[in-house]
């Protein structure tokens, strides 16, 4: 009789162990399947109302971009203060991309000098030196964002669409390490986009 009790306990323990193992397996697979969040450009990481204690807060008026902004949002200064020709090209491309299911969200566009300086100082703190920070964020004097001549386009499908079709609209990726950063090159429709720089430190415009 005792051996029956022992056998029953062993069977119950085996069932319990199997149930725990199944639950752990489900939990692990769920975590592994979670999609990564959309990448944002290093130069657009400051949230609305971000504050550098030594320099004061910056907000939308300085070019900080709220979530969900597209190239058609005229009420957002980061979009409305882009160079008119660049903005026109972006909107034409966005209309064509919509037919392929891609939407052009703007992670960063025009920026005030104050905002650009804050982003550069944050990059120095993050990367440890001005030289390394310059690979990702330009200074106020050299940034095409300050002049309204660059837009950082979010969402991987939009970036992929632009990499294939952007030249038709004069929209070119300028730096190999920044697949989100696009500028207008008017001759690209006829001659293709110029050769990309490895990073901004290779761009002669950044040597001022």
From TrEMBL:
Domain D-alanyl-D-alanine carboxypeptidase-like core residue range list: 81-182
Region ranges (Disordered): 28-64
Origin species: Streptomyces kanamyceticus
Record-given protein name: Peptidase M15
Gene3D superfamilies per UniProt: 3.30.1380.10
InterPro entries xrefs: DD-CPase-like, VanY-like_core_dom, Zn_M74/Hedgehog-like
Residue ranges with Low complexity bias: 28-51
Gene Ontology biological process terms in this record: proteolysis
PANTHER family the record matches: D-ALANYL-D-ALANINE CARBOXYPEPTIDASE, PEPTIDOGLYCAN L-ALANYL-D-GLUTAMATE ENDOPEPTIDASE CWLK
Family annotation (SUPFAM superfamilies): Hedgehog/DD-peptidase
TM annotation in the entry: none
One Gene Ontology molecular-function label: peptidase activity
């Amino acid at each position: 009789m005792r051996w029956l009790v022992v056998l029953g306990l062993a069977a119950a323990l085996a069932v319990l162990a199997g149930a725990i193992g199944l639950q752990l397996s489900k939990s692990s697979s769920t975590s592994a399947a979670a999609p990564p969040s959309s990448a944002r450009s290093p130069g657009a990481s400051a949230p609305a109302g971000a504050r550098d204690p030594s320099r004061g807060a910056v907000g939308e008026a300085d070019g900080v971009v709220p979530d969900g902004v597209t190239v058609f949002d005229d009420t957002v200064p980061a979009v409305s203060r882009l160079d008119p020709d660049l903005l026109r090209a972006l909107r034409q491309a966005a209309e064509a991309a919509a037919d392929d299911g891609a939407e052009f969200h703007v992670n960063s566009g025009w920026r005030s000098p104050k905002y650009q300086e804050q982003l550069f100082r944050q990059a120095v703190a993050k990367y440890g030196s001005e030289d390394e920070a310059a690979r990702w964020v330009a200074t106020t004097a050299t940034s095409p964002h300050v002049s309204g001549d660059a837009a950082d386009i979010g969402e991987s499908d939009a970036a992929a669409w632009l990499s294939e079709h952007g030249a038709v609209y004069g929209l070119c990726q300028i730096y190999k390490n920044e697949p989100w950063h696009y500028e207008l090159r008017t001759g690209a429709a006829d001659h293709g986009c110029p050769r990309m720089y490895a990073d901004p430190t290779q761009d002669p415009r950044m040597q001022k």
